[in-house]
Write a structure and sequence with these properties.
This protein is mainly β. The protein has no helices and 23 strands. It starts with a strand and ends with a strand.
């Protein structure tokens, strides 16, 4: 299984925090805890070639002080592949979650971190059978009611007060594009492209995109393994630094904002 480790920025030392997890789909945090979205489990029952949903995605809370892991209650009464969360983002009071949504809307709700009470905010009831539904992932908010999320290679903005969903930007052209992680500060967003192996900065106001690090698959390379961001997925911004998880090479990259 997967584990969570703490990186000491001063020394570079890694220490074990908690494990083991199925393979986190998303991670967020606040001043005291980390929150991980542990994916649903699928399997092949005897006599069936097709994979079936077996158990729900789980939300794990990890104490930064003790490493204690607690599984939060499921946010919805219904269970099944149509009701698993797709993205999560937290502040010190609430955990925000996205679900399958109809085009033009976002199914967004929030869970109180002190009581685990869940409140739908928009887009409910969620899209279960709609042919035009989509799955918002890689959720991040500026804390001012603007939520940013990924849909494939595109990043969109959702304004909670008005319900408006708008296009912000697309990842730079490559053979394949999938947003892996999304973070930011104010109107400056940073995203990883987990298939094209790049980290990009996006101006949420103008939509201008520029590559900060990595080498895209469509760029000629004598040796594929030299791509420093191959496998870049998770992303977190703190102050003037961006931290990128590289699953393929099992490393954490730190990118200084003043060196772009």
């Amino acid at each position: 299984g997967f584990t969570v480790r703490r990186l000491d920025l001063a020394t570079g030392n890694l220490s074990f925090v908690a494990g083991s997890f199925r393979g986190p789909l998303a991670i967020t945090g606040n001043s005291t805890d980390l929150y991980i979205l542990d994916p649903a489990t699928y399997g092949n029952p005897i006599g069936h070639a097709q994979q079936f949903w077996l158990s729900p995605a789980l939300i794990r809370r990890i104490s930064l002080a003790t490493g204690e892991v607690y599984t939060l209650p499921l946010p919805l009464a219904q269970t099944g592949p149509d009701f698993d969360p797709g993205g999560l983002w937290s502040d010190d009071q609430f955990l925000y979650l996205t679900f399958f949504s109809r085009q033009g809307t976002v199914a967004l709700g929030r869970m109180r971190l002190d009581s685990f009470e869940f409140t739908p905010l928009s887009g409910f009831p969620i899209a279960v059978t709609s042919e035009t539904r989509y799955f918002p992932r890689s959720l991040w908010s500026d804390g001012q009611g603007n939520f940013y999320f990924a849909e494939g290679k595109n990043i969109r903005r959702f304004v909670l007060s008005t319900g408006e969903v708008s296009f912000v930007a697309s990842l730079p052209p490559a053979m394949e594009n999938v947003v892996g992680g999304l973070s930011g500060s104010g109107d400056s967003l940073v995203a990883t492209d987990s298939t094209a192996s790049v980290v990009v900065e996006i101006n949420a106001t103008t939509g201008v995109v520029r590559t900060l690090a990595g080498l895209a698959y469509n760029v000629p390379s004598a040796t594929e393994d030299i791509r420093p961001m191959k496998g870049a997925t998770g992303l977190w911004r703190q102050g003037q630094f961006f931290y990128v998880i590289d699953d393929t090479h099992s490393v954490i990259h730190r990118i200084a904002a003043d060196t772009f």
